[in-house]
Write a structure and sequence with these properties.
The complex is a heterodimer of chains A (341) and B (341).
Chain A lengths: L2 H14 L1 H23 L3 H22 L2 H22 L8 H24 L4 H6 L2 H4 L6 H34 L5 H28 L3 H26 L6 H4 L3 H8 L2 H10 L25 H8 L7 H25 L4
Chain B lengths: L1 E12 L2 E12 L3 E5 L6 H8 L7 E6 L2 E2 L4 H6 L1 E4 L11 H11 L6 H8 L13 H12 L6 E5 L7 H17 L2 E6 L2 H7 L2 E6 L2 E7 H7 L4 E7 L4 H9 L3 E7 L2 E6 L3 H13 L3 E8 L2 H10 L6 H7 L29
Parallel strand pairs in B: 3-8, 3-9, 6-7, 7-8
Antiparallel strand pairs in B: 1-2, 1-4, 4-5, 9-10, 11-13, 11-14, 12-13
Helix pairs in contact in B: 3-4, 3-5, 4-5, 11-12
The chains are: A mainly alpha (341), B alpha/beta (341).
């Protein structure tokens, strides 16, 4: 059982290379920026727009700056700057609401964590095959199972470590500056976000176990992200194209069954649990369009009849966990039986 | 007792057959030379032995354990220096060795191992090491935990003459310690310098195997008698071939080449036969080296490749010959023996 030592070594490698720093940097920047900007921006839209621009800018700079130490310094500077701005510009008379914090951070992470998780893991195995260091990895008495487990653990740590650290910082900021700001709610968001991040680490690792080259692995993870984020909703909309007057009849049950087994939707649904509301701008509201005849009690009736299981929080939790467990196992199954050289 | 046993190994990559029924065994404590041109399948054989690659059919085992099912147990007792390995660019040479020591749960001193292979640059990231330095690093990793079996694939790649000599000394010392050494190379001199037993691999098949001396004898390369003649009637060739101690006789370019066992009687009988036929003019005698065996195998028929011709220093066309030139320069030109008598 050599996975412990292999994971330790892999973690060292990743943190000395650009991957680890980049992952940490993106997460730290994003959480801090999102929270900080919300504290001072007059509207959520403005916060999102400015935050997005700054992050893109920072990423571009990172690509050119290169060395891990420089990137870390850059992130540190951004963090301090943002915290200072937040402290100076926060308007205590109009504090943003806690539920907005969860909404914005949760929505942002639903996009960001897939990218970061996939970035952190796509090269883990195929990269070693490409550089030839796999001859060290598996020339030593390490089983393929141990090697795979070690890679999963180290790459998970690379993503989850900065995520949790960033969320704790975000929680402190939210609790201090937001109306009814709740540290616990942000921490709850972190708890939900960890399996979500692990799911994409697992998917990236599976791609890495399967692909013949790192370029192919990149293509696969981009494809997976596009499929889940864009292809899936497109398929959903196509599935209801033939239905006339959808606003009168409401969406069919299968529309929600298809949609809610998507792990991104499952994650978003889980975040609604933390902010005392059922609807989310990223999710189709099961009641939408059905309230054509809004008689008394109509809302409760339809809420109970349109795919009540698929749209429940419990179902979302089950879907997220199932994906998280299954994603890395496909790769392990393939990695066990393939030729690594 | 055989440390390595390979039986009927076949490996197909798509429609390319890399190994076509390879069988050999390596006895405990011997230095086994695995000789063959690039692309013959040496690395594929080693990859199967170490479970990087799975055979299409056939079996490989080491220490009586199956190469696939019990790979970790094999690798616990094996040190490997494999062709095409890559270092972890972010780790130092010392950290590589320390990692191997921890994975193998050994108690070696990393500095002592690096001293032994002659690597002074041990605290710099391995990305900055030259090919020769990396080779010394990999050799140090291979020597961790005094392995019972050393698998070296093209170990002298990138080494300067000093490094190559040190490598030979280490191989010798390891063999003296009782380790079995599997030494794979396309460079004959290196194999001949260290090996007790040699197998020649060509185009996916073992074409010859045995102790170095026995191999020469068995292949009829004790010596070649080159007789200048005025004519070479077929009957004379048949007579020559039927003589005791004569392996083969071929005619061409005013000469008859008679491959003899290493015994003066046979040569004398051959000369007599030629003289009796009345065509004798002059004769020349050449002791064959193993390089002739090798170059013969790799240049006769349609199996030859450019690389092997270069490697053996022999020209493929057996036309011109300068009587004054030393025999070694002419390696392989005249000898025409069958694959297996």
């Amino acid at each position: 059982m050599t996975w412990r030592e292999v994971a330790r070594r892999d973690l060292t490698s990743v943190y000395r290379s650009r991957t680890g720093t980049a992952v940490a940097a993106i997460l730290a920047l994003f959480t801090v920026l999102v929270v900080g900007l919300m504290g001072l921006a007059p509207s959520l839209q403005a916060a999102a727009a400015v935050g997005g621009l700054v992050v893109v800018l920072a990423l571009v700079v990172m690509v050119f700056v290169g060395s891990p130490r420089a990137v870390a310094a850059l992130v540190g500077a951004f963090t301090v700057l943002t915290l200072a701005l937040t402290a100076v510009l926060t308007q205590p008379e109009f504090p943003p609401a806690n539920r907005d914090a969860i909404l914005v951070i949760g929505s942002a992470l639903s996009f960001l964590l897939p990218l970061v998780g996939l970035l952190g893991s796509y090269a883990a195995l195929v990269g070693e095959r490409e550089t030839g260091s796999v001859r060290f990895l598996l020339g030593l008495p390490t089983s393929r199972d141990d090697a795979y487990l070690a890679k999963f653990l180290s790459r998970s740590a690379v993503v989850v470590g900065p995520l949790v650290a960033g969320m704790i910082l975000a929680g402190v900021l939210v609790a201090a500056t937001f109306e009814d700001g709740s540290f616990i709610a942000v921490l709850g968001l972190a708890v939900v976000s960890v399996p979500y991040a692990l799911l994409f680490v697992g998917l990236g690792l599976t791609a890495s176990a399967y692909a013949e080259t790192t370029n192919r692995a990149v293509a696969i993870v981009i494809g997976v992200f596009a499929l889940l984020r864009a292809g899936w909703p497109a398929a959903q909309w196509l599935s209801i194209r033939g239905i006339e007057d959808i606003y009168a009849t409401g969406y069919p049950d299968y529309f929600f069954w298809i949609g809610r087994i998507n792990p991104i939707n499952a994650y978003v649904k889980l975040t609604t649990f933390l902010m005392d509301r059922d609807v989310h701008p990223l999710l189709t509201d099961p009641e939408r369009g059905v309230g054509y005849d809004p008689g008394p009690g109509a809302v409760e009736e339809t809420a109970a009849t349109v795919a009540p299981i698929a749209t429940s929080v419990e179902f979302a939790a089950a879907v997220l966990l199932a994906w998280t467990v299954a994603a890395p196992l496909f790769g392990l199954w393939y990695f066990r039986r393939r030729d690594v050289l | 007792m055989a440390v390595i046993e390979v039986e009927g190994l076949r490996k197909e990559f798509g429609d390319v057959t890399a190994l076509d029924g390879v069988s050999f065994s390596v006895e405990e404590g011997e230095v086994f030379g695995f000789l063959g041109p690039n692309g013959a399948g040496k690395s594929t054989t080693i990859n199967i032995l170490l479970d990087f690659t799975r055979p299409t059919s056939g079996s490989a085992s080491a220490f009586g354990r199956d190469a696939n099912r019990d790979s970790v147990a094999i690798r616990e007792r094996t040190g490997t220096l494999l062709e095409g390995y890559g270092v972890y660019p972010e780790l130092t040479a010392r950290e590589h060795v320390e990692h191997a020591i921890r994975v193998k749960e050994a108690d070696d001193d990393p500095d002592a191992l690096l001293d032994r292979t002659g690597l002074a640059e041990r605290n710099r990231p391995a990305a900055g090491l030259s090919k020769g330095m990396r080779q010394r690093l990999a050799l140090a990793v291979a020597l961790v935990d005094d392995p019972d079996l050393l698998v070296l694939d093209e170990p002298s790649t990138g080494l300067d003459p000093n490094g190559a000599r040190r490598l030979r000394e280490i191989v010798q010392a390891e063999a003296d310690r009782g380790a079995t050494v599997f030494f794979s190379s396309h460079i004959l001199e290196q194999v001949e310098a260290v090996a007790d037993t040699i197998a020649i691999l060509l185009d996916g098949s073992v074409v010859a195997t045995g102790e170095v001396d026995a191999l020469k004898r068995r292949l009829g390369v004790g010596a070649t008698l080159s007789i200048e003649v005025t004519g070479a009637p077929d009957r004379l060739l048949d007579d020559l071939r039927s003589l005791r101690g004569v392996r083969d006789a071929t005619a061409g370019d005013g000469r008859i080449d008679v491959a003899c066992d290493d015994d003066g009687e046979a040569k004398l009988r051959a000369l007599n036969a030629v003289a009796d036929a009345g065509v004798y003019r002059d004769f020349d005698l050449r002791e064959a080296s193993l390089s002739e065996v090798f170059s013969e195998y790799t240049t006769t028929g349609d199996r030859g490749t450019d690389e092997t011709r270069i490697a053996s220093g022999a020209s493929p066309d057996a036309a011109a010959r300068d009587d004054d030139s030393p025999a070694d320069d002419e390696a392989g030109k005249y000898l025409k023996w069958g694959k297996e008598p």
